[in-house]
Amino acid sequence: MTLLIEQTLNGIQLGLLMFLLAAGLTLVFGIMDLVNLAHGSLYMFGAYFCASFTAWTDSFVIGALLALPAALLLGVIVEVVVARKLYRRDHLDHVLATFGLILIANDLVRLVWGPDGRRIPLPAWLNQPIYLTPDLPYPTYRFAVIVVGAAVALFLYWLVTRTRTGMWIRAGASNRTMIGALGINVELLFTLVFGLGAVLAALAGLMAAPIVTVSIGMGDNILILAFVIIVIGGIGSIKGAFIAAMIVGMIDTLGRALLPDLLKTFLSVAAANTAAPALSSMMIYLLMAGVLVWRSTGLFGARG
Amino acid sequence: MAETMLKVDSLVKRFGGLVATDSLSLDVRAGEVHALIGPNGAGKTTLIAQLSGFLQPDSGRITFDGRDITLLPAAARVRLGLSRSFQITSVLRDFTALDNVALAEQARQGHSFRFWRSARADRSLRAPGRAALEEVGLAHRADDPAASLSHGEQRQLEVAMAMACDPRLLLLDEPMAGMGPEESARMVDLLRRLRGRRTMLLIEHDMDAVFALADRITVLVYGRAIATGTPAEIRANEAVRTAYLGEAESG
Amino acid sequence: MAGLLTPLTTWRGRITALLLVLLGLLPWYAPWLDAAGIISQKFALTLMTRVLILAIAAVSLNLILGYGGMVSFGHAVYIGLGGYTVGIMAHHGVQDGFLQFPLAIGLSALLALAIGALSLRTRGVYFIMLTLAFAQLLYYVGVGLEAYGGDDGLTINRRSDFAGLLPTRGLDKIVAFYIVSFVVLVLVLWLVHRLVNARFGMALRGTKSNETRMQALGFATFHYRLAAFVIAGAICGLAGALLANHTEFISPAMMHWTRSGDLIVMVVLGGMGSLFGPLYGAIAFLLLEEFLPSLLRLVLTWLHGGISAVLGGAAIGTLDAWLRLAEYWQIALGTIMILVVLYARGGIDSLFGRPRHG
To answer: What residue intervals traverse the membrane (chain C) (predicted)?
Structure first.
């Protein structure tokens, strides 16, 4: 039972991280109609920035806080130099150009930070268990990730549904010609949205960093998961991204935790240990295929 | 009285709160040119889309030659002999004019699961294609890419493609849209030559053309058919005059 | 073979013909290159075999992407399936190529039928993502196959045996396999050429150009798209079977999504919807991958020499430090890709004159 609660919390934590990554992706996709494969690179840069700033300031928290504006700056540069030129092109062009960006990003990181992975040391107060109930310890850091993730999700919800900027964003995501008609500086809005996406991706990356090790290409596989999430949720829908991210986080975590024991009942231990993570990854793609075959624009999607 | 070829029975199509087709009934008789007129937003193009299978009605029935085709996909309707042209020119722009009509002929001849012989060297496709271009007066542009044709020529090609399917009923969605007077006159000429040989349901804003060509006219207002009759009857119809012809300019 | 080449009177035709002759005769002049110290014969043949095989895969992708307008982001999955079919059969002692290859092609066709039947119901980016999802699904199947090496893959101890016709060791093996790959590529090009110009191809290309119009003409477009999807999958499965023989190794990495991305890059780099475009693209992409570091080193040496002559050597660091930058050649490759997308959309093929329609 304790295991189940712990794994459920891990699932929520992974889901929230995935949501941060997916939220930026779905906004950029919904508003600018840009398929940005390099979104995962922003995630990676967030982690590397944080690693450097943490080493520099000796504080993970300050390092993280410094990494966010750095990621914003990077996002704005990428938007102005490359992404902006792609908005009017077709999806195939997006795929190619941002695929090129991934190659550049990975080698650039290797050039600046070297080929080896990095670990971000946690301060002592984050590096100990917190007791949710007297007999239920849970890593403080993971709990902090849940708190921050949930806070940012609420902030996004507030931003999108309660503010003027959010109104433009919603208008843009559902009907792109409309924002032009509203007399808004569209270029600036696009740059801001892209920058916001970069910050969210970097936040996800730097929060994941102490758990997974910072390494080159760390964004490549998780990016595909983020795409799966926004496609399941329906492109442009923050709500859809949130729900799908939670489902995916749960499937992945619980699958990895529970499947080995289940598989061991009819497979060898070695085979079960190899098959279980693969199977839980497969379940996510099966879910997406199922959703799309059932509803061709995702759970909350309006257009294709 | 000629037999009914197409019968539309209390067709309804809603978009959200807007009723685009409002329990509309209509019949097109074999051999006639039946014109559909009405102010903008009357639901003419929506109706064509439902008749040709690109939109599913919410309720009602469409019968073609006594067969219920309400649920049939577009391609299957063409094979039964019901083909359409588009209001917004919809030709295959990367292909030559001849390729465009030859493709229509290819579809007419049955499935295209033929993987080896070159289609462009196939006389059984090219000859009828050339004939179709000849018929609309485009023979001299046969080998030019459709994208390079003038607007009027593309409209002619549009009609040639619909005709090359050898339909028994031709749905023409504003064939004269965006044409100059000279091009319009040529199109009216073309349609007049087709008259009697093909049954046509014609949507058109150009009233001169409509009254010159149509055997019968149906007037659509807000998705409803408010009157059907000969041109003379329609001209005399009080309801039509107030709802439609009375307006200064239909646009 | 007539009709495969563009007329030799055009530059386009001449360049293509020259390229095919150069590729076809490589085994015969490679020893000279070796003797002249330009490139080792074995290395040249091995590298170019890989180019030919991936060109076959790219040509198959071009059938659906370039001619059919279907952006499949999971095409490498058929390379994987073709490869695993050969590898798994070899692992169990079945070496007969006349069994392995038809099975590899047939299974790939079946997989394409299943993926296509589900994916082709969606449009746009949902189609891209669905094809990607199915490919990732199979990728994780590969990862989960503990019996066949899981993540680490599986070494193939013996290549496919075609009634003992192919040499099994030494340079002869490499030369023979190069020739086989070249012949298969030419046959595939010929097949695709016939397909896209036949009625089927006209229907497919019309569907890419304007699907609504094609339906209005009476084409059941879904069926033609699906058929093309299956044919492309089958051809790519063949490429996978060849690749497994070439590398004598299979692993899930063969079907990772970035491999599918590579194939798209090859097709677009070469020129979509032109018969030889994917071949140019495969050559350009794989040779860039292979030689870009050396090329960069050359450029950096020049630059360093020039600048140090002006500013003095001490000011700009040692040549060694500069040359180390060449390790980061992917930055240059990525930049080239972005520049091609932004400024040279027709691909390499368009540089040789107006793309021919067919």
So the answer is: 45-65, 72-92, 98-118, 125-142, 175-196, 217-243, 263-288, 295-316, 328-348
Say yes or no: B120 contacts chain C, CB-CB below 8 A.
yes
The CATH number of whichever domain residue C181 belongs to comes to 1.10.3470
Domains of chain A (ranges, CATH numbers): 2-120+138-294 (1.10.3470)
* Helix intervals (H) in chain B: 44-52, 74-80, 97-108, 123-136, 151-164, 181-194, 207-213, 231-236, 238-240
- State how many domains chain C has: 1
Q: Which of C71, C146, C341 sits opposite A270 (nearest CB)?
A: C146
Helix (H, G, I), strand (E, B) or coil at B9: strand
B199-203 and B169-173 strand pairing: parallel
| Residue at C313 is within a domain | no
Nearest to A107 among C71, C330, C340 (CB): C330
Distance from CA of C183 to the nearest CA of A (A): 30
**Model confidence pLDDT, tens digit, residues B215-229:** 999 999 888 898 999
Question: How far apart, in whole angstroms, are the C-alpha atoms of residue C352 and residue C358?
Answer: 15
- Does residue C117 lie within any of the structural domains? yes
- Chains contacting C (3 or more CB pairs within 8 Å): A, B
Query: Does C130 reach chain A within 8 Å, measured CB to CB?
Result: yes
Contact A285 C337 (CB under 8 A): no
Its domain, for residue B88, covers 4-92+168-245
Per DSSP, what are the bridge partners of residue B7? B27, B63
pLDDT, tens digit (0-9, with 9 covering 90-100), for A69-101: 999 999 999 999 999 899 888 888 898 899 999
Chain A CB contacts of C327 under 8 Å are 110
Give C206 to chain B, closest Cα distance, Å: 7
Q: How far apart are CA C157 and CA C93, in angstroms?
A: 10
Selected residues 103-122 of chain C with any CB under 8 Å from a CB in chain A: 118, 121-122
Contact C201 B119 (CB under 8 A): yes
Q: Per-residue pLDDT for chain B (251 aa), expressed as one digit of tens each? A: 578 999 999 999 998 778 889 999 999 999 999 999 988 878 888 999 999 999 999 999 999 999 999 999 999 999 999 999 998 889 999 899 999 999 999 999 988 999 889 999 999 999 999 999 998 889 999 999 999 999 889 999 998 998 888 899 999 999 888 888 888 888 898 889 888 888 999 998 888 889 989 999 999 988 889 899 999 999 888 888 877 665 544 43
Give how many domains chain B has, as a whole number.
Answer: 1
pTM of the model: 0.89
Touch criterion met for B and A (3+ Cβ pairs within 8 Å): no
For C262, the domain range is 47-292
Task: For C81-116, write each residue's pLDDT tens digit.
Answer: 999 999 999 999 999 999 999 999 999 999 999 999
ipTM of this predicted structure:
0.87
* Per-residue H/E/C for chain C: CCCCCCCCCCHHHHHHHHHHHHHHHHHHHHHHHHHCCCCCHHHHHHHHHHHHHHHHHHHHHHHHHCCCCCCCCCCHHHHHHHHHHHHHHHHCCCCEHHHHHHHHHHHHHHHHHHHHHHHCCCCHHHHHHHHHHHHHHHHHHHHHCHHHCHHHCEECCCCCECCCCCCCCHHHHHHHHHHHHHHHHHHHHHHHHHHHHEHHHHHHHHHHHCHHHHHHCCCCHHHHHHHHHHHHHHHHHHHHHHHHHHHCEECHHHHCHHHHHHHHHHHHHHCCCCCCHHHHHHHHHHHHHHHHHHHHHHHHHHHHHHHHHHHCHHHHCCHHHHHHHHHHHHHHHHHHHHHHHHHCCCCHHHHHCCCCCC
Question: Most C CBs within 10 Å: which of A216, A292, A299, as the mutation test of the C interface?
Answer: A292
**CA within 13 Å, CB half, B95:** 29
Q: Is A283 on the interface with C (CB under 8 A)?
A: no
